[in-house]
Every structure is written in structure tokens, then in C-alpha cells.
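Researcher: Next entry in the queue.
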Amino acid sequence: ILDRSLIDRIETVRDEEAYEASKFLARREGLLMGISSGAAYVAALRLAKELGPGKKIVTVFPDKGERYFSIEKYFKNGTGGC
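Model: Structure for this entry, 82 residues:
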């Protein structure tokens, strides 16, 4: 059961930002993550920038990228893919 009183805030991430972040995680870190994980990464980066140096940020990557194997554009080079 979701206890909304525990939520500090909700961060909105555009689809394009989440998609690009998931590709970044694949290329840079070798993590095959889905778009929801890309959104979590973007939100964590924003919070880290807001809080400044010396703070620890923890996020959860809620999905993997394997569900996107059937989407050709997700993996194409030169067109925004991995």
C-alpha cells in the first residue's frame, strides 16, 4: 500500500530525456536499462546537482532494457540508439 505521506516530491522527466539516459547508461556504464530506469537516473542527477557536492543520492532502476530488443531504433547507431 502506497503511503503518499512518505513522498517528498515527484520529478517529471520527459520521454526523450529518459530514453537518452538509458542509452547513456548502456554506452558508458554497460548497464542495459529500460526507459523508466533512464528517468530515475535523470531525476537522481537533478537532485545531486541541486544538493551539491558531498551528498549521497540513492536511486532504484526499476526496469531492464531487454524488453526493448524488439524495437530496432533503440539499438541503432547514428539515429539516437545505442
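Model: The two ends are 37 Å apart (CA to CA).
Researcher: Noted, moving on.
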